Amino acid sequence: MRFILILVALAALLAAPWVITDPFYVHLMIMVLMWTLLGASWNVLGGFAGQVSFGHSAFLGVGAYATMILYLNLGLSPWYGIVIGGLAAAAIALPIGLVCFRLRGPYFALSTLAVAEIIRLVALNWESLTNGPVGLLITTLPPVTFAGVPVDWESKTPFYYIIAVLAVGSLGSVAMLAHSRLGAYLLAVRDDIDTAEAIGINTAQVRVSALALSAFLAGVGGGFYAMYLRYVDPDAVFSIALSVEMVFIAVVGGLTTVIGPLIGAVFLVTLGETFRSHFLTGHLIFYGLFMMVAIRYMPEGIWGRLRLIFRNRSGVRNA
Amino acid sequence: MPEAMLELKGLSRSFGGLLAVSDLSFTVEKGAIIGLIGPNGAGKTTVFNLVAGFLPPSAGEVLLEGKDLVGLKPHAVTRRGIARTFQIVKPFRNLSVLENVTLAAFLRFPMRRQAEAEAARLIEKMGLKDKIKFSANDLTLVDQKRLEIARALATGPKLLLLDEPMGGLNATEVDLATLLIRDICADGVTIIWVEHVLRAIMNTSHRVIVINYGEKIADGTPQEVVENPNVIAAYLGKRARSHAAD
Q: Is the separation of the CB atoms in B220 and B46 below 8 Å?
C-alpha cells in the first residue's frame, strides 16, 4: 500500500512538467522541492536529534559558495560541485559541532546563530575568494547532453528534475535514518542526553553525525540554489531569514517525520507566494499570522497531526 | 578472598570549596549487594556520578576488575560494564517502554529484532509486560523506577548502580522491589545500592557502607552498622548517641 503510494507520487513528480508548463508554476515547484530538501536537512538535526539550530543558512551558504567557486575558478562542473558543496558544508560542520555541542538547549541554538553570523562575515570580507559583498555571478552553465539531447539551461525543466532527484534523495536518506540504529540513538539524545550516555550511547559522536548529515543536505541545497539563481552574495545565502524558513518548514510539516518537510514546503511556499501576489504590501504579516496559528494549534505539524488522526481511526492507539 | 569487582581508592571530589566526597576507599566483591547509605547530602549520588563517569574526580582511582575508569565518558563506562539508574527518573519520555529498553539493548544486540526480544524479556521480568506499548511518560512513578532498572539491565552490566530505586514506593512495592534486586543479584550482577528505605537495605544487603559529609564512617554487615555509634550520631545527632550508649 505504502509502496504503491510512493510509486504514484514519484510518477506524478516525473510527469508534472509536462502537465504544468507555465514557467511561474514550474518555478514554484522547484522552490517547493528545494525547500523540501532544506526542511529535510533541518529535520535531521532539529527534529530527530532535537538540537535546534538557527544557523542552518551557514551550511546552505558554504555549499552555494563552494559550488560556485569550484566552477568559476577551477571549471569543475556544478553537477559534481553540488555534491562537493554538500561535503564542504559537512566538513565545516565538524568543528562547529565540536564547539557548539558543548552547550545544551537554548545555548546551543544561540551558538549556531553566532556561528552563521561569523561565517557570513568571513564571506563578506574574504574578497579574494568570495568577491566580498559584490557576490559571485555565473553567466553560462556548462553544456551538458542528457540521453543525446543537449540540455537547455534557459528552460526551468532541467532544474526541476535535478532538484526533484535531490529532494527525493534527501527524503529517502531520512527514511533510512529513521529506521536505522543511528536514527533511534538520535531520538534518545533528543529525549535525554544523560540517559543516552548512561546506556552506552556516544552522544557527542551521534550528534556530530546528525549535524554532518544535516549540513551535507543543506550544502547540496545551497549548491543547487547557486546554480539555479546563478548568483550568490553573503547577505542572500547567509541570511537569518533562510535559517528561520528552514525551521518553519520542518516544524509546520511535522518534526521527526519523513515527509513532513515536503508537506511543510508545499504549504509554506505556495502560501508565501499566494500572500505575496494578493497583498503586495504586508504579505509577511499574513504569513507570520499563519505561522502563529499553525504552531499554536498544531505543534506536532501538519503531517504529525494527520498521522495521529490516522492512528486513532485505525484503532492502533498507543496507550 | 573473593575477587574485587569494583575498587575505589582515595576518591575525592570537591565543588568549589565544598568537599562532596573525601578520600573514599572501599572494595566491592563480585556477586555482592552493597548498600550505600548516609544522611541527605552525604555525597551518595556524587559517588555514583564519579564511578559512572558523569563527573571527573578531583583525586583518586576507580577500578573495575582492576582497570582504571577515571577519564572515561559515561558511555564508555557503560560499555565496560557499569549501568546506573537515576534517583530522579530519566526515561526517554516520548518513547514507549519497549523503545526505552530496546535502545539500551542495542549495546549488545545490534540487530533490532534481537534487541527488542531482549528488551521484552527484561520488561516482563520487571513486571511491565502489560505496559510495553505505553509511553514512558504515562507510567506511574513505581513503573518508571522499574523501567529505569530494566533499561540499565539491558546494557548487560557486571555492576549495577541503583540510585534510590525505592524512593516513593509503598510497603508492598518495597517488598516486591527487594525480591527483584535479590533476583538480579542471583543472575550474577553485582549491585551497589543507595537507599533511604533502611528496612529494605538492611534486609537485602550483604554489606552496608555509611558515608557522611563525603567520608566513610562505617563499613560492615547490616547488624554491625546499625550498632555503630558513629552511624547513630550521623543519623540522629550526638545526644542520641549518648542515649544509645546508656
A: no
pLDDT score for B107: 95
Take residue A278 and report the three cell numbers written for it. 494578493
Which whole-number Å values give the CA distances from B25 to A99, B68, B119, B205, in the listed order?
36, 14, 35, 19
Nearest partner of B123 among B142, B93, B149, judged by Cα:
B149
Query: Which region among A51-55, A250-254, A288-292 has the lowest average model confidence (pLDDT)?
Result: A288-292
pTM of the entire structure? 0.89
Q: Which residues contact B154 (CB under 8 A, 6 or more apart)?
A: A199, B101, B102, B104, B105, B107, B108, B118, B119, B122
Distance CA B39, CA B212 (A): 7
Select the residue of A191, A200, A204 nearest B95 (Cβ to Cβ).
Answer: A191
d(CA A63, CA A67): 6
CA A258 – CA A273 distance, rounded (Å): 25
Residues in chain B: 246
Please give the single-letter amino acid code of residue A271.
L
- CA angle, B189 as apex, B188 and B191 as ends, to 5°? 140
For the segment A155-212, what is each residue's pLDDT rounded down to a tens digit?
899 999 999 999 999 999 999 999 999 999 999 999 999 999 999 999 999 999 999 9
Per-residue model confidence (pLDDT) at position A319: 34
pLDDT digits (tens, 9 = 90+) for A89-132: 999 999 999 989 989 888 999 999 999 999 999 999 999 999 99
| Alpha carbons A140 and A153: distance in angstroms, whole number | 8
Q: Which residues of B touch A199 (CB under 8 A)?
A: 75, 78, 83, 103-104, 107, 151-152, 154-155
Output DSSP code: residue B135.
B
By a Cβ cutoff of 8 Å, what residues of chain B touch chain A?
A: 52, 54, 73-76, 78-79, 83-84, 86, 90-96, 99, 102-104, 106-107, 110, 112, 131, 133-135, 138, 151-152, 154-155
- Give the residue extent of every domain in chain A: 2-239
Q: Is A68 exposed, middle or buried (0-12, 13-18, 19+ CB in 10 A)?
A: buried
Average pLDDT, chain A: 90
Q: Residue A290: pLDDT above 50?
A: yes
